[in-house]
Specification:
The chain starts with a helix and ends with a strand. The protein is globular. The protein has one helix and nine strands, in the order αβββββββββ. The chain has 151 residues and is of the alpha+beta class. Helices cover 16% and strands 47% of the residues. It has a single domain, classed as Lipocalin. The protein has an eight-stranded antiparallel barrel.
């Protein structure tokens, strides 16, 4: 009887540990099961295509720069003048990632008043040190961006 109770206690403890481990990882943003989130880090915008009339990617201007930082729970991007070092625009907030669907919640920004509170969804993928983001802003404005990981 004592042996049976010990086995039941051990099995119950294993079940509790498994449940705690599952709950601890639930809601974590992952690009694929079992792999770390490949989006995490600092990215620099290299190429972009905005709007439906644009057919070719445009390199980022030599006058301005744009960085995007992604953590486990938040994102933020900033566009700045490389000469004066003044921030031109910025936005950030939380995000969710489900497969290749990346949804940003624009919770704060500079020069982004019309986008505050919106939640645009993009298709996102990484290939090595490149990040590809495509989709539409909430009013249907098309975005295609190519970012490179900052090392």
């Amino acid at each position: 009887m004592m042996k049976k109770n010990s086995v039941l206690i051990v099995l119950a403890m294993v079940a509790v540990i498994a449940l705690v481990a599952t709950c601890a990882t639930a809601g974590k943003n992952e690009i694929s099961v079992g792999k770390p989130n490949a989006l995490l880090g600092t990215w620099e915008l290299k190429l972009s295509k905005y709007g439906s009339s644009s057919s070719a990617f445009t390199p980022v201007s030599t006058v301005t720069g744009r960085f995007k930082m992604i953590t486990d729970t938040h994102f933020m991007w900033v566009s700045y003048d490389k000469t004066s070092k003044i921030v031109l625009s910025s936005a950030g907030g939380t995000y969710t990632l489900e497969g290749d669907k990346y949804t940003e919640s624009i919770d704060f920004g500079l020069g982004m008043n019309s986008y505050l509170g919106t939640k645009p969804t993009y298709t996102i993928k990484t290939e090595g040190d490149k990040l590809f983001l495509t989709g539409n802003l909430t009013e249907g404005y098309q975005i295609e961006e190519v970012w490179e990981r900052v090392k």
